[in-house]
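Hi support team,

I submitted a single chain yesterday and got back a structure, but I'm not sure I'm reading the token output correctly. Could someone confirm the output below corresponds to the sequence I sent? I've pasted both exactly as they appear in my results page.

Thanks,
R.
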Amino acid sequence: MNVLGFWGQTEIKQMMLSKEFLILDHLCTRPQASQRELAMGCGISLGRTNAIIKDLVTKGLLRCEEQNGRKVSYILTQRGLAERARLSNENILSTIRNYRRIKDSVMELLNRLYGKGYREFVLEGDKGEIHDVITEIFDNHFKDRATLMWGPAETREAQIILNMDRRFLTDKNAVNILHEITV
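Hi R., thanks for writing in. Yes, this is the structure output for that exact sequence:
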């Protein structure tokens, strides 16, 4: 683990850019929003929202126009609109990269379990995105040599339960997918 802990400098930069994107995106459709509304809408603290807005104004991406009294409108400049588009594209590409990393990680996990002799895979938990990833990988790489079913099931030899909940499992024939995925 590096000095920054779990998150590296690249990840921290991406998080900061994503917060800038959230604010620019929010203001694009709601220029009359107050900083408090922005903070709540973007899931960022009010103090951090204020700092990001000041930074966006300094960079020339945002312009503040005072309305009647204390009310302020935030207008995206041409540079702000271009930056919002760039960040949007970057966000899409980052999502695609993360999806590929998750797929690769699930593929490695399934190969490792198959290598240990498991031939029956039982899915247990929410039927969400991870379920879809596992099913797709299984259909493309394992369906001729192993079985995939929806649980719960009685535990048998050569069977592994792939749990998709966040709970901690102690069963030796069960794996929590969310704990095993490395991105």
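A quick pointer for reading it: Residues 9-76 form a domain with the Arc Repressor Mutant, subunit A fold (CATH 1.10.10.10). Let us know if anything else looks off.

Best,
Support desk
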